[in-house]
């Protein structure tokens, strides 16, 4: 239940008299108002509060979020428990602080994020019960690295085990003492990179075999190739946490790693990246040998194309990704697709001579000679409406490339609110028809590929694609869909409208 706006646990009996007595108790004007353990953040205190705290779970909410109140009692209960361990819980209304929400990539509500001294990290737990929040945050407060004894074979074997597919990169720091500043830089870096592919350990030995304190990074043995060293070393004892992280991130991927649902954004979110889909298995020696054979062949090509990231992917486990390239069920045992710097997909034509044709495909891709794969409806012919019907194949031609502003609504056929926006767009397109550098468009977000910057928070989602920066569109973040509100949005953000207004004033 909620008392004076604060969620409280009900711990009494579940019978009629108990319910009645408790409600009479809390409705009494003299009942002591509970104080929430959840900190309310705003633009004024957001940065200062988070920078000062070692560990904070922040829930981004919105005033029109139906699900947000459902989590409030669980979050309140977790907050009261966690604060005893100096772990804090806070909320921020993203609908009243759109700049902060955009800064952290928040497009839907509620969104949970972890902050360590002001640095943001993804909150990966899917559970929303109070014990889920408690467990996840308690785990986040445990040491980020394990102390190792390299003479203990069993501990060493477990640490460097290849069974953990979420921790693909081993990072071990060797130090003379835990008092040295370099150790603390390493410890801070490990804490900041918890939700990462890195597995951290450290060794303290006054007589380090390698002479000076240093950090050693290595990939799982299955991902090594003849073109890479077995270890990478960082021995700048004056290095701070940021420099350690820079070293880690520069070696986060092997020459040819594995593209999975775990690594696709974490390690392979950068572009350009080329993925070879085939059967990748590691269980039996025979399967491992076959997987390594194909991976080594791709490495022969990858080391000659250092400007492109390469990976292999299992064609069954990653079948949905294979389908996005239009390559599903084509009968070939090897297929390839690449993501370009523009975020678009490029597919290699299926070939029974894959190893012969793949280098040519990579060469053509790097030189911009391969046409992208685009999910798209048919391009409408003879459009007469002032609101242009954009599809996947025409999105770049109408929205991204031309030197004019575009107000575009992203809709879907089953959305009733979208039909209202369609009518408003028709009215506005006629009202602003004299401004030639301001166009209006709509696109079905379910049936067409868009530019990666045009994220769909819900339907409808409205963006202004400014002629000055088409790849960083301005989102309409109000839930009020009226002609007046959208005109005000145009007047505030459209350079084409503002330039036209100045011109007309000059003519007068």
Question: Which tags fit this structure?
Answer:
single chain; 508 residues; alpha/beta; 5-stranded mixed β-sheet; 16 helices; globular
Can you put this structure into words, describing what you see?
It is a single chain. Helices cover 33% and strands 21% of the residues. It contains 16 helices and 22 strands. The chain has a five-stranded mixed beta sheet with strand order 3-5-4-6-7. A five-stranded mixed beta sheet has the order 8-10-9-11-12, with helices on one face. α10 (285-302) links the parallel β14 (273-278) and β15 (309-314). The longest helix has 18 residues, at 285-302. The termini are far apart. The mean pLDDT is 91.
Shape: globular
Strand fraction equals 15-25%
End-to-end Cα distance: 63 Å
> How many alpha or pi helices?
16
Which structural class best describes the helix and strand composition? alpha/beta
Give the total of beta strands.
22
Mean pLDDT: 91
Major sheet characteristics:
5 strands, mixed
Helices and strands in order, then pairings?
Elements: E1 2-3, E2 6-7, H1 16-27, E3 39-41, H2 46-51, E4 56-61, H3 68-82, E5 88-93, H4 98-103, E6 111-116, E7 119-122, H5 130-140, E8 145-147, H6 153-159, E9 169-175, H7 181-192, E10 198-204, E11 214-219, E12 232-234, H8 241-250, E13 256-258, H9 263-266, E14 273-278, H10 285-302, E15 309-314, H11 319-324, E16 335-339, E17 345-347, H12 354-366, E18 387-390, H13 395-400, E19 405-411, H14 416-431, E20 438-444, E21 461-466, E22 469-475, H15 483-493, H16 495-507
Parallel strand pairs: 3-5, 4-5, 8-10, 9-10, 13-15, 14-15, 18-20, 19-20
Antiparallel strand pairs: 1-2, 4-6, 6-7, 9-11, 11-12, 14-16, 16-17, 19-21, 21-22
């Amino acid at each position: 239940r909620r008392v004076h706006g604060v969620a409280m646990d009900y711990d009494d009996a579940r019978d009629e008299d108990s319910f009645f007595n408790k409600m009479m108790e809390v409705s009494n004007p003299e009942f002591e108002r509970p104080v929430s353990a959840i900190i309310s953040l705003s633009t004024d205190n957001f940065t200062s509060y988070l920078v000062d705290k070692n560990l904070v779970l922040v829930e981004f909410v919105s005033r029109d979020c139906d699900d947000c109140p459902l989590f409030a009692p669980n979050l309140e209960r977790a907050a009261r428990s966690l604060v005893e361990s100096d772990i804090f819980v806070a909320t921020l209304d993203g609908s009243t602080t759109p700049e902060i929400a955009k800064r952290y990539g928040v497009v839907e509500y509620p969104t949970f994020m972890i902050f360590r001294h002001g640095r943001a990290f993804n909150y990966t737990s899917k559970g929303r019960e109070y014990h889920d929040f408690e467990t996840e945050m308690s785990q986040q407060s445990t040491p980020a690295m394990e102390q190792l004894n390299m003479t203990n074979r069993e501990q060493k074997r477990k640490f460097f085990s290849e069974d953990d597919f979420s921790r693909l990169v081993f990072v071990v720091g060797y130090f003379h003492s835990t008092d040295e500043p370099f150790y603390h830089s390493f410890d801070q870096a490990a804490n900041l990179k918890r939700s990462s592919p890195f597995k951290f350990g450290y060794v303290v030995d006054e007589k380090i075999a390698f002479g000076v304190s240093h950090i050693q990074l290595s990939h799982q043995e299955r991902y090594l190739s003849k073109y890479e060293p077995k270890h990478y070393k960082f021995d700048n004892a004056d290095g701070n946490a940021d420099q350690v992280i820079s070293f880690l991130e520069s070696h986060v991927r092997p020459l040819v790693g594995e593209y999975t649902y775990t690594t696709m954004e974490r390690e392979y979110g950068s572009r350009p990246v080329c993925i070879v889909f085939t059967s990748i298995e590691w269980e039996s020696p025979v399967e491992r040998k076959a997987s390594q054979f194909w991976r080594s062949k791709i490495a022969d090509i990858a080391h000659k194309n250092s400007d492109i990231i390469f990976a292999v992917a299992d064609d069954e486990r990653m079948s949905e990704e294979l389908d996005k390239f239009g390559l599903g069920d084509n009968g070939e045992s090897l297929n390839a697709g690449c993501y370009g710097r523009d975020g678009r997909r490029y597919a290699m034509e299926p070939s029974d001579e894959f190893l012969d044709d793949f280098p040519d495909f990579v060469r053509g891709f790097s030189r911009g000679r391969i046409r992208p794969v685009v999910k798209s409806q048919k391009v409408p012919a003879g459009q007469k409406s002032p609101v242009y019907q954009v599809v996947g194949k025409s999105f770049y031609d109408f929205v991204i490339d031309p030197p004019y502003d575009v107000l575009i609504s992203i809709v879907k056929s089953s959305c009733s609110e979208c039909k209202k926006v369609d009518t408003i767009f028709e009215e506005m397109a006629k009202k602003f028809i004299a401004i030639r550098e301001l166009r209006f468009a709509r696109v079905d977000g379910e049936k067409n590929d868009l530019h990666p910057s045009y994220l769909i928070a819900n339907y409808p989602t409205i963006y202004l694609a400014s002629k000055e920066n088409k790849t960083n569109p301005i989102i309409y973040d109000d839930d009020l869909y009226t002609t007046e509100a959208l005109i005000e949005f145009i007047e505030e953000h459209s350079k084409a409208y503002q330039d036209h207004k100045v011109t007309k004033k000059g003519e007068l």
